[in-house]
Design a protein that fits this description.
Blueprint lengths: L3 E3 L3 E4 L6 H8 L2 H4 L10 H10 L7 E8 L5 E10 L4 E8 L8 H14 L7 E6 L3 H9 L3 E9 L6 E9 L8 E4 L5 E5 L6 H12 L17 H13 L3 E8 L2 E10 L8 E8 L8 H15 L5 E7 L3 H9 L3 E11 L5 E10 L4
Parallel strand pairs: 5-6, 13-14
Antiparallel strand pairs: 1-2, 2-3, 3-4, 4-5, 6-8, 7-8, 9-10, 10-11, 11-12, 12-13, 14-16, 15-16
Helix pairs in contact: 1-3
Length: 358
């Protein structure tokens, strides 16, 4: 899409072929290109060809040149690019080296974001940075983005590769690190799931299934959980605007998780469904209470949500006590909803918690 937009110090505009000499100053700089996937440009003509390849009429792309208002100089470029595979906008930028450290990258990408939002729905933005590139990391953090997984970045020509981070921003459901102390004095961490949690999550799912009759799966049914499936699940919930998953880590071990989700449908978007589970060794440590506080906070921050809903199985007195402590009350029963291996039938109870706002 074509762009012409003003920030405090910059004019953001569509690049033109005659910008090639100015753009070559950063496209041809090895220091600027060090952590970029493209190789260093060696000819101004190649930069002109790149600019000519851009389609300013493509609604899924917004590439802007960064022009200093004070001098009229073109000092960088960057923009946003829509990914139809996940519904996110990828950001990218380059800046002339003598202009580093002055806040122009944040100002420019922030302006591009405002411009694109005025014309398209932007559910979230994503990007990457190299682990050894603290400047880029600081730019991403100032834009409100947070790491959600490790990634290997590779030059398009295969000449170099380096470890980095994938970052996301603008998703209300990405939960930043919440650190707290357990009743036994250990430190715990609650946050959105990341790719590095997958092995621990698979172990947790299998172990927890064999520790209690009040989880809906048996251990032998856990074969359906795979690394690929968990990654797809993490990616989906971290990119969603109507659900969130939290994991709790204690000494690096997945101790439990919880999830809250709601509909986008007008008639039912006032209802949020929640679920929670913990490994037995972490029962009674205060984790369940803390995870519920986070889910309640998420619900309260969504003006559409009027009530939280959950279910528990007959006989699960520990869970019922926690739920009632957090403000839930029983509203119904499904007789014989659960049938155990030995044929025992158990009722399932539904509970709700009204959201009261002052």
């Amino acid at each position: 899409m074509r762009i012409y937009y003003h920030t405090d110090r910059l004019i953001l505009r569509t690049l033109k072929p005659e910008d090639a000499p100015a753009a070559f100053l950063w496209c041809g700089d090895p220091d600027v290109a060090r952590y970029m996937v493209y190789p260093v440009y060696t000819r101004e003509e190649d930069v002109r060809s790149w600019i000519g390849s851009l389609d300013p009429d493509d609604p899924d792309e917004c590439e802007a040149g960064f022009v200093l208002k004070s001098t009229g100089e073109l000092i960088g470029s960057g923009g946003m690019y829509f990914r139809r595979d996940n519904g996110l906008w990828t950001i990218g930028y380059n800046l002339r080296k003598d202009q580093w450290g002055r806040g122009y990258a944040c100002e420019a990408i922030g302006g591009v974001l405002e411009y694109v939002r005025s014309r398209r729905e932007v559910r979230g933005i994503q990007g990457t940075f190299a682990d050894d590139n603290p400047r880029s990391r600081r730019v991403m953090e100032k834009l409100g983005m947070a790491p959600v997984g490790d990634i290997t970045l590779t030059k398009l020509d295969g000449s170099a590769a380096w470890p980095g981070k994938r970052v996301l921003e603008d998703f209300r459901m990405i939960i930043r690190d919440v650190e707290f102390t357990l009743k036994d004095g250990r430190s715990a961490l609650i946050r959105s799931p990341r790719d590095g949690d997958i092995p621990g999550m698979l172990e947790y799912l299998n172990t927890s299934a064999g520790e209690t009759e009040f989880i809906l799966r048996y251990p032998e049914e856990c074969g359906k959980y795979t690394p690929e499936g968990e990654k797809a699940l993490f990616d989906r919930v971290n990119a969603a605007d109507n659900e969130a998953m939290l994991v709790c880590l204690v000494d690096g071990k997945v101790a439990g998780n919880c999830q809250i989700m709601w509909s986008r449908m007008i008639k039912t978007r006032h209802r949020a469904s929640v679920a929670i589970a913990l490994l037995k060794e972490f029962w009674g440590r205060g984790i369940g209470t803390r995870m519920f506080r986070e889910m309640i906070r998420i619900a309260e921050e969504n003006e559409n949500i009027l009530q939280m809903e959950l279910e528990f199985i007959e006989g699960n007195t520990r869970a019922r006590a926690l739920y009632e402590k957090m403000g839930f009350r029983i509203t119904g029963v499904r007789p014989n909803a659960i049938r155990l291996k030995d044929g025992t039938l158990r009722n399932e109870y539904s509970m709700i918690r009204e959201i009261r706002r002052s």
